[in-house]
Amino acid sequence: MSIAIRLNVRRIRRWHLDFQQILQARTGENVSFVLEDGPGGMLSVDLLLDLEKVLYFHSGQSPIDIMKPRVVDTALTVSDADLIINLSGNSNQVSDSCLTLTPLFEGASEELALLGALLQGRSPVVSVQSAPGLQITATAAPALDEANSVRQRFELVARHTQRLLLRAVSGPRADVAQSVGRFSRPGAWDVGSYAVGRVSSEALKRIYQLCLYSPHWRVGWRFVDDDGVWTRHSLEGVPWNSIADPGYRFYADPFPFNFRGKTFIFVEDFDHHGGKGIISAIPFDDAGQAGPAEPVLSEPWHLSYPYLFEHRGEVWMIPESSQSRKISLYRADPFPSRWVRDCDLIEDIDASDASLVQFEGKWWMFATVRDELGGRMDSLSLFCAEDLFGPWRPHPANPVLIDAAGARQAGQFHLQDGRLWRPVQDCRDGYGRALGLAEVTRLDEQDYAQVIRTVLRPDRNWPGRRVHTLSRFGRLECIDGSRNSPRFGANWLRET
């Protein structure tokens, strides 16, 4: 099979060349370029990308570098190809004789559609359209909050587009739902407004960080006699109580757990001074909090998200420990004060918020995995095993989901009327800004699918700017959020 990659001779980028080499290595087929004339970019956008390269000290090669046509192998023509990858930005000339795959940004094939979304601060919808038939065979909505500039976001989306095209070539998913984009062509005014707003935003952010610890999380709890948030699909109902903290430390990622009559809320306990988290336990009784937070697990690396469960009469924990590049299983010995690392379930992996569930006779692990293409906020990977202790095998479609709105786990699973639900972090507007309630509609070793039924944001019931964890044990329901914590004293704390 011969594969042709159509390129605009004015807009050849380094990631196009990288994609050709990866595709050729994976398929073992001849992959060549076909160059065609097309529109150039916008001078104001190109100047902005160059300016950000200087301002943010970007050096070395970048996937969005413009390349000269002479570096491109053009030994093939479109008429000779069995598969066409259309990266030219021109969607009008589609072959009726062979399969053509075209990446779309906000529903348009032009690169400017992507840049328009990035200048507006939006996470763009990236999809792959298959012709003939014009089906959407793959889609992604990458998280952008780990990128500080339009240039970095452009680089990130380029990598995701490369991954999405590889997926479409190797195993297309027919009739993937098309998210409606908001394509708008940027103008010089958009570039100028972004540049001015960016400078102002960075200045205010710096002042904010000099005066306040940010982000500073807080834990909310309440006793409920129904299914709480999972019943109402809202944060209303019994008022939430906040767990106090000393100001220079915060508590987040709450997981309530009861074992042999003892109830605790396990939390990430983060020290702003040291910049590292440990796991602490807060005792509870029928009246509420019964004592202060006590450290129960510390490692040389940062710990958070203490996912707890009972198995074979013992209590187990999988804390988030991505800095160790392992997903480790700890056993309480005794509960809750001492934890022993029993084994490493998966090694050599940068995984966040690993969460386990037994479903239809198998153990399933959900985690967002960061690698050369994916990120911690948007790339969901699954692993499966017949036994808790493994061996764990990766899902063949990993990452099964690339979506800033629903990839990263946000607490314990919920089983309702035989249906599996998961709370998810909605990171489209930034880390921890909203919480989604997602129904898992397919979970097997061939594929995965979910539908987000509700998105919860901070409101009068839980004021603040963030909410990103939902967990429940018995009557004790927990969430977390944010508040201001001044660096120079705690006498004027207020909700934000």
Summarize the structure.
By secondary structure, the protein is of the alpha+beta class. The protein has helices at about 15-25, 45-55, 110-120, 150-170, 190-210, 230; strands at about 1-10, 30-35, 85, 100-105, 125-130, 135-140, 210-215, 215-225, 240, 250-260, 260-270, 275-285, 290, 295, 305-310, 315-320, 325-330, 340-345, 350-360, 360-370, 380-385, 395, 400, 415, 420-425, 435-445, 450-455, 465-475, 475-480, 485.
Topology:
Blueprint: E1 2-8, H1 14-27, E2 30-36, H2 43-55, E3 83-86, E4 99-105, H3 111-119, E5 126-131, E6 135-140, H4 150-170, H5 188-211, E7 212-213, E8 217-223, H6 229-232, E9 241-242, E10 249-259, E11 262-271, E12 276-285, E13 288-289, E14 294-297, E15 304-311, E16 314-320, E17 326-332, E18 339-347, E19 351-359, E20 362-369, E21 379-385, E22 393-394, E23 401-402, E24 414-416, E25 419-426, E26 434-443, E27 448-456, E28 467-473, E29 476-482, E30 485-486
Parallel strand pairs: 1-2, 1-3, 3-4
Antiparallel strand pairs: 4-5, 5-6, 7-30, 8-9, 8-29, 10-11, 11-12, 12-13, 12-14, 15-16, 16-17, 17-18, 19-20, 20-21, 21-22, 21-23, 24-25, 25-26, 26-27, 28-29
Helix pairs in contact: 1-4
